[in-house]
Amino acid sequence: MSDSSAAGHGQSSSPTGSDETPGSLTTADGTPLKVSLRRAESRARRKAFFLVLPLLAFLLITFAIPIGQMISRSVRNPEVADYLPKTAAAIQAWDGQEVPPEAVFAAMADDMKVGLENRTLGRAAARINREIPGARSTVLGTARDLDEMSPPYKEAFIAEDEDWENLEFWSLIKRETRTITPVYYLLAFDYEYSPQGEIVERPESYQVYRMLFLRTAWMSLLITSLCILLGYPIAHLLATLPLKSSNLLMILVLLPFWTSLLVRTSAWIVLLQQQGVLNDTLVWLGVIDDNNRIRMIYNQIGTIIAMTHILLPFMILPLYSVMKTIPPSYMRAARSLGATQLRAFVTVYMPLTIPGLAAGVLLVFILAIGYYITPALVGGDTGIFISNLIAQNMTGSTAQLRLAAALATILLLAVLVLYWAFNKLVGVDRLKFG
Amino acid sequence: MSLPAYAGTGERIWYYSYRIICALIFLFLIFPILVIVPLSFNAEPYFTFTEKMLSFDPAGYSLRWYEDLLGSEEWLFSIRNSFIISISSTIVSTSLGTLAALGLSRRHMPFRAAITALLISPMIVPLIITAAALFSFYARVNLANTFFAIIMAHVVLGTPFVVITVTAAMSSFDEQLLRASASLGANQVTTFFKIILPLLLPGVIAGGLFAFITSLDEVVVVIFLAGPEQTPMTVRMFSGLREEISPTILALASILVAMSILLLTAMELLRRRGEKLRGIKG
Amino acid sequence: MRTTAKSVSLAMAASVVALAAAQAQDKSLTIVSWGGAYTESQDKAYHQPFAEQTGTKILQEDKSAQALAGIRSQVEAGNVTWDVVDMLQADAKRACDEGLIMEIPADEWLAPGPNGEPASEDFIEGTLGDCFVPQILYATMFAYDTEAFPDGGPQTIADIWDTEKFPGTRALQNIPQKNLEWALIADGVSPDEVYDVLATQEGQDRAFEKLGEIRDNVIWWSEGAQPPQMLADGEATIATAYNGRIFNAQVNEDQPFEIMWDGQMFEVDGWVVPVDTGNEELIKEYLKFATDTQRLADQAKYISYAPARKSSVPLIGKHAELGIDMMPHMPTADGNFDNAVQFNTDFWADYGDSLEERFNAWLAQ
User: Fold this and answer.
1) Does B237 touch chain A if contact means CB atoms closer than 8 Å?
2) A415 CB near a chain B CB, below 8 Å?
């Protein structure tokens, strides 16, 4: 945008023809050719840009801005600062060495009164309770008995609940007064703040996200490899068969591509479940016993099979479009020069297919790491991806929307890096369907 | 790729085993989709072939799941919602996408690569992220649980397909035709309607079909954005698959398979027409 | 180009019409519940008669499993679309403390009992909350497929962990609630001490370890409709389930299922109202109607959950369609209630976050 408007600006400010060196070419109306050409070009640029503008503006408002808002949510932490404002102010001076002074307790008592009245105290308490289970009851219980207390609140609070003497409890409150926090990113990598305020690994029984990022990556890699394994021969066959038969076989690739994702996933449920078609067939053939049906779904196997099936066309189509352009005479030339069929294939043919392979691999991998629906339906508890945990953190009863936002931001970053690589290596304008 | 006469035994073996491997992969691709069609006519509420079905006993087959589906007000309501959403979003995304593709195909388009990457990105960004972002966005502007929000979200998801297909159609467009048209005295408007549009139309329709099927098939965003009055069939299908998968879902799935066959045929015809118009022998 | 402009404006018009249609329903209630047989029983006992009487359009959403997160994000965004939400007591307590749902003055809003006693005295003690109107008492317990155990099925919680004697897959809900309690009971903790033990680090480790013993024999369910389906399909031989769902499968589908009442965990389920619905009058009218003595007793005609009003209990009769006596199927019936454990909502309000996080991590590994 800036580029074209700058060009437009320069053009209007330069008085026509006056500062041109004599002898330069001019158009019929006396404008120097250079200026005139530049003018025409910038007009063309503007025209082109205005055609794109509606969609660009639309996507900025309804796509880029919402994603930006989501990213900014992932570091926000307003609860304690908003709902315990006086405490937040009073505790800043506290050094963390001993139980805070009465001023902090009095501020807390004030905040509690307001928070009970507005029924917002529970929101601050819920935030603290996430870090120290039981803190919710401490805060709310004390607040409910506040009517019967009188200053000094320090003694009264401690008599009510000994948690008020706990330094860890107070340092947590102090830490939580920061409205911008990295805590959700720490959580997303299974780290947390220790009571002393250092960043430490979470206890092993709580670690899950790193493992899930890794699982998402290796399962996607496996699915991508399976797609290469199954897609390469098919693409090669389609590219080398006569057009009539290859067009016919192409339908077998395009039909799954055009079929609803949910339909394909339900088809795999029907095939793979314990009372499903495949198990029935195996029992009927006597390969397995009726009581020992194989569990092929609601685990990693289910996810891998169904996703390989669903993503396979994304591998075949780019491979096919590259392979189609390789003249068969290359192979014949290699053979006539004495290479075996295998050697000709490996040293001549395969290197030529690399652009298609790169496109297919990146496309399948990018799509795979963000998958949600299929793992959710056939993945059981061990075959789920990071997307499923993002969804869980948006909807479950212990939902943490900001953690979901942090996980989503990390995933988005990974996808964008891959997308950038795709754009560098293949070019988005080379994407084609059908 | 037929077998040359000079091929040795090893090559012959390889040739035939390669064919068999390919046949098996094609089977893997197509079998799961086709298997649900006969199963949707099962007279019993099972997802497997009963003995009666295997012996082709007519009593093993029935239309009960289709009757279930088409007799259910809830299913019909959600199918109707799906079509409202997909048709409206297709119209908008095809219009916006085609305009943008026309711009992108101009020789003088500034920042072409960056803008193209941006316009395609909704296809690449994981749906759960788009859903998370759009859900909060539309809730904040008081539009969650409205058709408007869902349609706008689906426009976002559909435009990349339109941009890609129309740009592809434009890239094989011969600019000499424009000059020819101008030299024969046609003005820009005439040129657009007589030359550009007919050549572009197959690409536009193909993009529209992609946008349509993308919207019709979309689950993740609508799970978060749709309220009870907008529930589309995919959401019902998704919760059905999670909770109690009933053969009614297979009946709907079979209908959808039939629909994709129709769409695929339409695409094939469009492709041929496009090639014919350009004088490429198909 | 003209056609493009035309189609854009057409689409815009279509969207606007749809938008207007969505907002034109002035007299409508969006009611969120659990789906399946349970929503159906509410539909027949509450929604349909209310709609008939008042001409209100009732829209139903099956999203109670995500009720707390849903209300939280709606209130936070200032866009509340749910009017009445069916919620568990523990979640309602949290939502109430966080100011997400309205306080409901029971005696003012709700119908009095048949003898004029105020509502607060008619509901079973401890079930009414500041923001919560209870409907039913229900149980979560184990049930099994009798065909899988010709010599008799499991009788105690400890039997569930005995995979030698009672082989087969167990279907459990994919949440820590109740599973951890049962694991401790199976490990020999007495039911009245379960929550004290579970509040300690050692107790939590012990519960997870015990649960780990049967993990290889477990598949997980998330929606109430799944366990009967899993038993019927043979995917599991033993399953935890809500008692009403098993009852439904027994009487409506003639499934050979048996409920094991030992160690049943009962809790209360009821209505809450999100703040800022802007629809308060109609909601009040609905709540008064749907939670009176007769309506609560009516629900028990369709599903075997015990009404939360004392005055409704004598009105429990026979199943509306099948004519079976409903009382023996209630979790509160004599014989069913002997070894019942009360689900501790206070404990879960405090420890829910951390235990759910640990449970999810454990599950994904």
Assistant:
1) yes
2) yes
Identify whether B175 is part of a domain. Answer: yes
- pLDDT at A18 > cutoff 70: no
Tell me the mean pLDDT in the region C138-160: 95
In sequence order, what are the residues at sequence separation of 6 or more whose Cβ sits closer than 8 angstroms to the Cβ of residue A108? Answer: A84, A86, A87, A153, A157
Only one residue has tokens 């907002």, namely: C23
CB contact under 8 A, A399 and C365: no
Torsions phi, psi for A189 (to 5 deg): -110, 20
Instruction: State the total domains in chain B.
Output: 2
| pLDDT value, residue B177 | 82
Asked if C189 and C197 count as a contact pair (C-beta separation under 8 A), the reply is: yes
Closest to B199 (Cα-Cα) out of B87, B73, B105:
B105
CB contact under 8 A, A398 and C357: yes
**Co-location of C226 and C352 in the same domain:** yes
What pLDDT shows up at residue A2?
37
Q: What is the pLDDT of residues B92-106, one digit of tens each?
A: 999 999 999 999 988
Q: Which of A266, A276, A367 sits opposite B249 (nearest CB)?
A: A266
Query: How far is the alpha carbon of B184 from chain A, nearest alpha carbon, in Å?
Result: 23
**What would the pLDDT profile of A196-230 be if each residue is shown by its tens digit?**
889 999 999 999 999 999 999 999 999 999 999 99
Nearest to C349 among A120, A136, A389 (CB): A136
DSSP state of C124: P
Cβ separation of B115 and A52 shorter than 8 Å?
Answer: yes
Rounded CA-CA distance C352/C350 in Å is: 6
Identify the CA nearest to C342 among candidates C177, C210, C188: C177
- Quick one: pLDDT band at residue A273, thresholds 50, 70, 90? confident
For tokens 């979790």, name the residue. Answer: C331
Query: Residue C10 falls within a domain, yes or no?
Result: no
User: What number is the ipTM of this complex?
Assistant: 0.91
pLDDT digits (tens, 9 = 90+) for C90-113: 889 989 999 999 999 999 999 999
List, in order, residues 6 or more apart from B278 with CB less than 8 Å away: B172, B174, B199
Range of the domain at B126: 73-245
C234 vs A contacts (CB less than 8 Å): 274-275
Is the pLDDT at B1 greater than 60, yes or no? Answer: no
Closest by Cβ to B151, choosing from C15, C36, C74: C15
**C74 with C133, same domain?**
yes
pLDDT band at A4 (very low <50, low <70, confident <90, very high): very low
The shortest CB-CB distance from B115 to any of A56, A69, A366 is to A56
pTM equals: 0.89
Mean pLDDT (whole number) for A48-58: 95
Best of A258, A271, A275, A341 to mutate (most B CBs within 10 Å, chain B): A258
CB contact under 8 A, C97 and A122: yes
Q: Does residue B88 contact residue B81 with C-beta atoms inside 8 Å?
A: no
Give me the DSSP letters along B77-140.
Answer: HHHHHHHHHHHHHHHHHHHHHHHHHHHHTSTT-TTHHHHHHHHHHHHHS-HHHHHHHHHHHHHH
- Write down the pLDDT at residue C12: 52
Within 13 Å, how many C-alpha atoms sit on residue B195's CB side?
19
Pairing state of beta strands C28-32 and C57-61? Answer: parallel
Domain tally, chain C: 2
In a domain, B25, yes or no: yes
A209-430 is a CATH 1.10.3720.10 domain: yes
- Looking at the structure, do residues C105 and C253 belong to the same domain, yes or no? no
Contacts of A51 in chain B (CB under 8 A): 99-100, 102-103, 106
* A423: contact with B, CB 8 A cutoff: yes
Query: What's the Cα-to-Cα distance from A245 to each of A315, B24, C162, rounded to whole Å?
Result: 20, 17, 60
Residues B108 and B44 in one domain: no
The 10s digit of each residue's pLDDT in A252-264 is: 999 999 999 999 9
pLDDT at A313 over 50: yes
